[in-house]
């Protein structure tokens, strides 16, 4: 009863969010997902925006305790794609009318890297007659670097806060002076100032993370006035400090999937007009994870378009799905999945969130 009452409200309170976050009853959960889908349909339509994902390097200077490509991971076969390979993937994305792409890699902050990205962004703009939207997901950088990439033509940036709980953030990152919560927040603010559409997100089901923390994460999205959200369940990566410490003691897959879906649904109910991705990590824990994400209010998918020979090398966590597929296979497979939900793929559109346009008009 109470769930239905709360779902009638146009603006939820923090207490409402916490009440809904604690729900486990399947019928009540369905009510939440259904309402979130309605809001997505009202605000955005029955549409799914695509961003072709190019994971162009697993070299990384950071040492995040959860991540499979962290600097100290010994078993990783490191790669850095040739510029032409990146451009070829971009061309495939353009020709297949995906509308937008995401360039993602491990973090580097040296000039050679900065220049590489700057040139690649410019060349992607050229080869697509300015038509492809470009999102970057390349970690923490100086304001100058963010500005150079923006001027080159990138217009969206994804940088997850990972958790808005500073204590928890400290526990999942080494305290070596290079992993710093304030710097993450500074980066998000710089990105916004420069003019990017900014996306952030968290990992869900981290050891030591409470449902209240997750509610705080949603309030953090609101406070930062973000345009898009990409979040997904935490998945063990074996040869990492957290993989070793928590193997066997992380909450069950089912629970993490359910929390992940609740986070999508509650973010949609609370923030309404932003873009929310159904991420690969969700599918990593549940073969139908991405469809369920769309049903719970997500409206963005990021099909992996990384060339076949590199896919398996970019493993942030165990059992990454689709590593044996080609971009072509992913395209067909995902189209079927979107159709099964009753949504339509918005081919050829940049798919900026309505929130961004409203924010821009206010400026
Ligand atoms: N280096 C860039 C982009 C690559 S990492 C950056 O740091 O932003 C992209 C995201 O993968 C991270 O933000 C993190 O949230 C997620 N990730 C890394 N390891 C993970 C794991 N073990 N389980 C789930 N998500 C993980």
Q: How would the blueprint of this fold be written?
A:
Blueprint: H1 2-8, H2 14-21, H3 26-43, E1 47-50, E2 52-57, H4 83-95, E3 100-105, H5 111-127, E4 133-137, H6 143-152, E5 156-158, H7 166-172, H8 181-194, E6 197-200, E7 203-204, H9 211-223, E8 228-233, H10 241-246, H11 253-271, E9 275-278, H12 280-285, H13 289-295, E10 300-301, H14 308-311, H15 327-341, E11 344-345, H16 354-362
Parallel strand pairs: 1-10, 1-11, 2-3, 3-4, 4-5, 5-6, 6-8, 7-8, 8-9
Helix pairs in contact: 2-9, 3-11, 4-5, 5-6, 6-8, 9-11, 13-15
The protein binds S-adenosyl-L-homocysteine.
S-adenosyl-L-homocysteine is lined by residues 66-67, 104, 106-107, 137-139, 159-160, 162, 203, 232, 234-235, 237, 281, 316-317.
List descriptors.
TIM Barrel; 363 residues; binds S-adenosyl-L-homocysteine; alpha/beta; eight-stranded parallel β-sheet; 11 strands
Q: Could you give the order of the helices and strands? A: HHHEEHEHEHEHHEEHEHHEHHEHHEH
Bound molecules: S-adenosyl-L-homocysteine
* CATH homologous superfamily assignment: Aldolase class I
The total strand number stands at 11
Under CATH, the topology can be stated as TIM Barrel
Oligomeric assembly: single chain
**Number of DSSP helices?**
16
How many domains would you count in the coordinates?
A: 1
- As a percent range, the share of helical residues equals 40-55%
Roughly what is the average pLDDT, rounded to an integer?
A: 96
- The end-to-end span amounts to 41 Å
